[in-house]
Design a protein that fits this description.
The complex is a heterotrimer. By secondary structure, chain A is mostly helical. Helices cover about 85% and strands about 0% of the residues of chain A. Chain A has one domain. The chains are: A mainly alpha, B alpha/beta, C mainly alpha.
Chain lengths: ~220, ~210, ~210
């Protein structure tokens, strides 16, 4: 029990550190929100979409997933510039805790951005989607995004062309989350939610990748 | 199990099929001052990173206090690694960088601990600055403060004197003498033996 | 000696398969000549699935015993697997257009194949872009294992997705159920054997080249 509380304490310290950095730089939130806004601007200027449920869902998830790639890259690169990560790796904390802490930071930042992205989507696409079921859906998908994004960034962190490699692996790996997210969004908007199978799949997927992150942490960080 | 404090047996490490460290064996006693020498690219930093568990090794064994070094959080808690590069988070002030590190080390009151010691290397004169506003020497001092102030049992120092002015070198020398007198084991690598007096008192040498 | 014999046998099986496909099997009444694409599409898809399993097993072996052979085998099977998977996709699309009236249907197997090709393309690209070769091999092995673990989940999700999005196909044979006779079944089996043997040859060739390079 004491070990578990220690772990939570360490995670809290690392997450708080990330937030202090983000309050100063605001790089991650700005990059996620502005990129997804740009997607909306392109949609608004290239189509006559008005109040279409299917398109709302598609555009929301497209703008979120691509801007998440940018945000996670920004968030993780902060650990690598100036070797800040070495401070974590040489301290007496397990490598898996480093991964979990970064995933939690990314999750919180992505979720804050999602709220603003959702607001902008609702305005541009003329919809009012603030259902609790939808918010829960976004949160569990965001958790998947954050853990998978953290893992894919770390896998490619020392490779040339990591800006290409990371999304190239990220998008296929999150495809089940995107399928579930978009399909369930449409059902929620139609007030026709057909059970919770997709919620179960998404949560199971998140847990699988959390476990993968824990198992491969030593292999990723130690050369 | 070996009775030595640190036992290194047949240690080998490869990068890209090149053997950087080849069959290194040595026994280190508690409180030893160990000099690591070798030309550029001979593996001095690699060796220190292996001891700090940043790198794995391909062959051989390393035991510290009778425990294998592999994935060992306890050993990480007693080892301090001072890299030759400056390590910091650019969006945290010098003070917050150091307090953050003390926090994850498990220091019960990291802020107080910092405040009690912040005159070491005159960190208090630039503690509110952000690392990118600092000179290389100041960044080095921040790194040294972070890795030398907490109490560890083993210190791994990779060219600690690089970039320091003469006053700071004197302070660093005094600190290392104090640490060594407390029976702490120090490994150092340097290309400039005359930069710190303590360097001449090494007990063992690892030639790579 | 054995490899030359194997290559000869593969060549003969291929010739036999081509005879079966173009001369022995009659043209399907409902689907027309494009139905014969199945004798290329299905074996290619089968080989690409086998490749995923082999890449994962080789990668796991490499992670445990660090022998270069397993890493080379993983790389070889991944490259040949991506090639076969891409060709399976292309032949699937070629078949779909005249039969279903659409190039792409979002069908579970197609979607899964596309996603897996991307994962293994990332694997291959990563191998060429990462300079520290020992760390690269370790991470490449991790990517391969993640891809293999993920593939059944992606297929399951794609199936659920497909059920919720019934395929709107409008071609002349969209509503027809096709049923193959025994002759089609035998020909398909021979095709699968032929392409599997080709897969083995190509993988072995690539493995040999990698070993010589090292």
């Amino acid at each position: 029990m004491r070990n578990f509380l220690n772990i939570l304490q360490i995670i809290k310290i690392i997450v708080l550190k990330d937030f202090v950095e983000e309050i100063k730089s605001k790089e991650i939130l700005i990059s996620i929100i502005s990129y997804s806004t740009l997607v909306l601007v392109v949609v608004a200027t290239t189509s006559y979409i008005n109040n279409s449920i299917e398109i709302f869902s598609t555009i929301f998830w497209i703008s979120l997933s691509f801007s998440v790639i940018l945000g996670i890259n920004k968030s993780m690169s902060k650990e690598f510039e100036n070797n800040g990560l070495e401070m974590l790796l040489t301290s007496p904390i397990g490598f898996e805790i480093v991964i979990m802490s970064k995933a939690i930071t990314n999750f919180i930042l992505i979720s804050i951005s999602s709220a603003i992205i959702l607001l902008f989507n609702n305005i541009i696409l003329n919809y009012d989607l603030y259902d609790l079921e939808f918010i829960f859906l976004v949160l569990i998908v965001n958790f998947g995004f954050s853990i998978i994004g953290t893992i894919t960034y770390l896998l490619f962190s020392k490779a040339r062309g990591k800006e290409i490699l990371s999304p190239l692996l990220f998008i296929p790996l999150v495809s089940p989350l995107l399928m579930g997210g978009s399909l369930t969004s449409v059902q929620i908007m139609n007030n026709n939610l057909e059970g919770y199978a997709w919620y179960g799949l998404i949560i199971a997927y998140d847990i699988i990748f959390l476990l993968i992150g824990v198992f491969i942490s030593n292999l990723i960080f130690q050369e | 199990m070996d009775k030595s404090y640190i036992t290194i047996k047949d240690l080998s490490k490869k990068f890209n099929e090149n053997k950087i460290i080849d069959n290194l064996s040595i026994e280190i006693d508690k409180g030893d001052l160990v000099k690591i020498s070798g030309r550029n690219g001979s593996g001095k930093t690699t060796f220190l990173k292996i001891l700090s568990q940043l790198y794995t090794f391909d062959e051989g064994n390393i035991f510290i206090k009778g425990q294998p070094i592999n994935k060992n959080s306890y050993l990480k808690s007693i080892i301090s690694y001072c890299s030759s590069d400056s390590i910091f988070y650019k969006d945290l002030s010098v003070k917050n960088n150091i307090i953050f590190y003390f926090n994850i080390l498990g220091e019960s009151n990291p802020k107080d601990f910092y405040e009690k010691n912040n005159n070491f290397l005159e960190i208090n004169t630039f503690e509110e600055k952000f690392p990118e506003e600092l000179s290389n020497g100041q960044k080095k001092r921040m790194n040294l403060f972070r890795t030398l102030i907490p109490s560890f049992e083993i210190y791994l120092l990779d060219e600690p004197e690089l970039g320091l002015d003469s006053d700071s070198l004197e302070i660093l020398n005094q600190k290392l003498v104090k640490i060594n007198n407390l029976e702490k084991t120090i490994f150092f690598s340097t290309h400039n033996l005359s930069s710190l007096d303590i360097y001449n008192n090494f007990k063992k040498e690892i030639l790579l | 000696m054995f490899s030359k014999l194997f290559t000869l046998i593969t060549f003969l099986v291929f010739i036999f398969m081509l005879w079966m496909v173009f001369w022995w099997i009659p043209i399907d009444i409902s689907q027309g000549p494009v139905a014969k694409t199945v004798f290329i599409h299905v074996p290619l898809a089968w080989c690409s699935m086998v490749a995923i399993v082999l890449v994962a097993i080789s990668s796991i072996y490499y992670l445990f015993n660090k022998k270069l052979f397993w890493d080379n085998l993983a790389q070889s099977t991944a490259e040949v697997g991506v090639l076969f998977g891409s060709l399976a996709l292309i032949t699937g699309i070629i078949w779909a257009k005249p039969i279903w009236g659409v190039w792409w249907t979002g069908e579970a197997k197609l979607t899964t194949t596309l996603i897996l090709i991307l994962i293994y393309a990332a694997y291959i690209l990563f191998r060429s872009l990462y300079t520290n070769s020992m760390q690269m091999k370790k991470i490449a092995a991790i990517i391969a294992v993640i891809g293999a673990i993920d593939s059944p989940i992606i297929y399951f999700a794609a199936n659920l997705w497909q059920e919720a999005h019934p395929v709107t196909v409008i071609g002349p044979l969209a509503r027809e159920d096709s049923s193959f006779g025994a002759d089609y079944g035998i020909t398909l089996l021979v095709s699968v054997i032929a392409f599997t043997m080709l897969f083995v040859i190509l993988t072995r060739l690539r493995l040999k080249i990698l070993s010589l390079e090292q």
